[in-house]
Description:
Layout: E1 7-13, E2 19-28, E3 31-34, E4 39-40, E5 45-47, E6 62-70, E7 73-85, E8 99-105, E9 120-124, E10 131-134
Antiparallel strand pairs: 1-2, 1-7, 2-3, 2-4, 5-8, 6-7, 8-9, 9-10
Amino acid sequence: MAQGGRVRWEFAETGSNGFSIHRLMEFKNGAWSPGSKWVELPDNVALSTNLSRSSLMGTNTLLTNASFSRRRTNFSNRRMIGVTFLPDGTTLLPSASSSFLTLEPLQGPKDGSGNSANWLCVVINPATGRAETYRP
Length: 136
């Protein structure tokens, strides 16, 4: 990928495994193009769609009716989220909001609230683009 351009990190919903694939896109010559292939998360891991665990599911990052291809399979009418990073390191995320997403197993032990007891939260600072991770 070229340095100094806009980059978007996308997660896509593939079906029963939820949001379980991601890729990078780059903006060049006035259009978005793939900067990487779709990468599958490890087995049984997906992005949480619970707003209290993934605030990015409720912002302007959520796209509906997205279409894409992967491994000769066409997907249509899928949900996708994307976070755009600008050349100066900032993002297009709302600066006044907390921007985070949580990866968790689709099955396994739950806590008292019914959420997965094992998870990884990625918090993105909208002003700097810096990402920090948290685990239980």
